[in-house]
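EI: anyone free to look at a 261-residue chain?
SC: sure, send it
EI:
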Amino acid sequence: MKIKILKKLSATIFTCYATIAMAGPHWSHDEQAEWGAIRDHSQTIEPFTLPYATCSLGNHQSPVNLSEESHKARLNKLRFKYYVDRPVFFNSGHGIQVNMSDDYDGHLKIGREIYPLIQFHLHEPSEHMIGNRQFPAELHFVHVREDGKIAVLGILIKLGEYNVALQTVLDNMPSEEGAQSTDANVALNPLVLLPEHRWSYYTLAGSLTTPPCSEGVNWLILAEPITISSAQLAQLKSFYSDNARQVQDLNGRSVSHRVKY
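SC: here you go
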């Protein structure tokens, strides 16, 4: 019961972030270098005229190159308490997204902290890089606590075997921007989208990778990727292609890497 209450509060908080991005001035990945300068002409008072200024002015922006300034560290084990849900498949206009139901109680546990899972979405190609390697795609699980603190779990995706769980997402996603499938009635457990080995991950303080690029996000990127077939990648790109933000400067941040002990 407590998790469900926190989930509803968290969903409300994250809706505020989403509302800013969707109700604010138009943006696209093609013009990401100019996000910070986009003006909201419905506002007359600074800083509200520049709602995405953090995209340019922030010092803890995401994504990053995970191999730069990375070091091995003893970190909390990630505990994934995801369960079967009948989610909503949503075409956001910037990517394909799966919104968990209002009463969903799945969550990520980091140490003693519990982060309810709100939604997950895909980027093509990957936003994070490891050295010179950029992956064909990346999956983001967005978790929001009742106090507004955000933790995003990144899952890198490489070409390989056919992915049954990803196919469920692709087959039920509306093709029209802004549309959602509220009556899909498809049972899906987000756990099946995770790689087999989940003990090793990278972590750092970062931001949302789309406007308003809010900082204070706890990023956790699993070291082991999942797979997608060539045909599935083509299907993903038929929705959105190149909807990934470019790698940002670390600006003095370090990347911690949990290895198996």
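EI: The chain is about 15% helix and 30% strand.
SC: 👍
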